[in-house]
Amino acid sequence: MLERMSDLGALAVIFDLDGTLVDSEPNYYEASRLALAEYGVPDYTWADHENYVGVSTRDTVLLWRERYGLRVPAEELLAATDRRYLELARAHTRVYPEMRALLELLAADGVPTAAASGSSPEAMTAVLTGTGLGALLSVVVSAADVPRGKPAPDTFLEAARRLGADPYDCVVLEDAAPGAAAAHAAGMRCIAVPYVAEQADDPGFTTADLLLRGGQKEFTARSAYAWLRGTATMNSA
C-alpha cells in the first residue's frame, strides 16, 4: 500500500482521460477504422491514428474530411465514430493501474480532481462508469462543455472553474502534446506522460514541468504524488 502524504494545500489535479487515465486509444483506433471504412477510406492505419492522439473526436473528424476529401457531414461522421467507440468502451477499457493508485491517494487526502477530455459526454460516461474511476473524480469536463478543444486552454480552465480552483494551483496530467500545450496556455503546471514515446520531442511537450519521456512505463503513483506534494509546498511557501 502506498504511503499517504498530506499538506497538499490548495492543489487541484486535472487528468486527461484517453491515453492518460485509461488506454482507450486501441478502442478509438478501431472505431475510427470502421467508421472511415464505411465512408470509403479502407486503409486507415495505427500510424495514421497516432497523428490524432490528443485531438478531440470532433476536431479529428473535421481533419479527416479535409485529408480524405470526405463529403459526409461532420456530425454524421462524428456520430458513426462515437457509436462504434461506445460499443467497444462499454465492453472493455483498460485503466492504467498507477493512475488509479494516484487518484486513490488524492481522494484519500481530499484533493479535488477532474477529468477533462476532448471526448463526448457519452464516451466519458461509458469509460468512467465502466472502470469505476468516476467515483474518484470531483468534476468531469467533456468536449461538449467548451467552445474549443485542446491545444486551446478552454477544457482545463472550465475544469478549474468547476473545481473552484485557481489555475495557478492546478496540475494537469497529459499524454499528448496538444494537451500539454493547453495546460501551459491555461497557466497550469503539467506532468506529461507521452502515449507515443516517439513524440516526446514534440514542441508541445517543451512547456511541461515534468516530462516522463518513456510514458506510462516510467510513471508511478508514488513518485508523482511526491512531486505534487513538493510543488504544493513550494506554492504555499
From TrEMBL:
A Pfam family that the UniProt record links to this protein: Hydrolase
Q: Which SUPFAM superfamilies match?
A: HAD-like
* Superkingdom of source: Bacteria
NCBIfam families membership: HAD-SF-IA-v3 (TIGR01509)
The record's annotation in PANTHER family points to: 2-DEOXYGLUCOSE-6-PHOSPHATE PHOSPHATASE 2 (PTHR18901), PSEUDOURIDINE-5'-PHOSPHATASE (PTHR18901:SF38)
The name of this protein is HAD family phosphatase
- The species is Streptomyces graminearus
